[in-house]
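Example S7 (structure tokens).
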């Protein structure tokens, strides 16, 4: 890639984002407006679209979403789960119960759809996720389990080996907690997806991983985690330039 190609990357990123934004669903458009009014972070449109596609491609039926008011990612995962069941792409459904599930059943609570376990340590974030799920149109077949707790506290209580995907966003502490439990929680060949891997979205970000001088909490955590995951023999990894960096790690 030559210098001119690199200089066009920012324009290419904007083009992709704008293209996806123009084609997003009414639910997503409304959600972005609500998130903006509430002062909650809105993730990349291309990233949300990719997550939805990833759920469908992997035929995932049980997913853990860890974030801090991560509404856009949550809706994308619900849409992906609904797409899996609408296409009849699944095998048998195996829920992943916890000792305190705090489950909010959807319109189809007989487990004829997928399950999303949303973990958020912020009260504002988890309430926003619950409102999102309540306001979804009745065709959603996904069951939501929304838990207001730190990931490091809640994840060890979940059953092992029954989740096809773990998606992580938000504050720095979410990432290490998810990585620590990923091998145990994921089924064979399951995925852990780390959003904002370049640490550009933190409240004290100073350029993220592309700036060696950025010593913010998230940048420091992501540098360590990137090294740990890439060198972990239990996972195959790929770092891709979607959103502000996605790291995909598949359990071997």
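Recovered sequence:
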């Amino acid at each position: 890639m030559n210098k001119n190609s690199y200089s066009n990357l920012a324009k290419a990123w904007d083009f992709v984002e704008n293209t996806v934004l123009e084609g997003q669903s009414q639910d997503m458009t409304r959600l972005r407006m609500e998130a903006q009014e509430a002062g909650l972070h809105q993730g990349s449109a291309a990233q949300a679209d990719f997550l939805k596609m990833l759920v469908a491609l992997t035929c995932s039926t049980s997913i853990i979403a860890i974030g801090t008011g991560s509404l856009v990612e949550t809706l994308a995962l619900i849409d992906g789960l609904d797409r899996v069941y609408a296409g009849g792409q699944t095998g048998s459904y195996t829920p992943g119960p916890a000792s305190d599930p705090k489950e909010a059943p959807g319109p189809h609570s007989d487990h004829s759809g997928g399950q999303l376990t949303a973990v958020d340590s912020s009260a504002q974030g988890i309430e926003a996720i619950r409102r999102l799920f309540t306001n979804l149109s009745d065709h959603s077949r996904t069951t939501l389990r929304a838990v207001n707790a730190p990931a490091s506290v809640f994840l060890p209580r979940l059953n092992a080996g029954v989740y096809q995907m773990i998606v992580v966003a938000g504050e720095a502490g979410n990432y290490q907690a998810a990585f620590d439990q990923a091998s145990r929680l994921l089924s064979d060949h399951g995925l852990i997806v780390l959003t904002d891997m370049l640490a550009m979205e933190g409240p004290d970000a100073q350029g993220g991983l592309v700036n060696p001088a950025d010593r913010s909490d998230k940048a420091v955590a992501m540098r360590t985690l990137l090294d740990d995951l890439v060198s972990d023999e239990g996972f195959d990894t790929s770092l891709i330039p979607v959103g502000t960096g996605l790291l995909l790690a598949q359990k071997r």
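Notes on this example. The longest strand covers residues 186-194.
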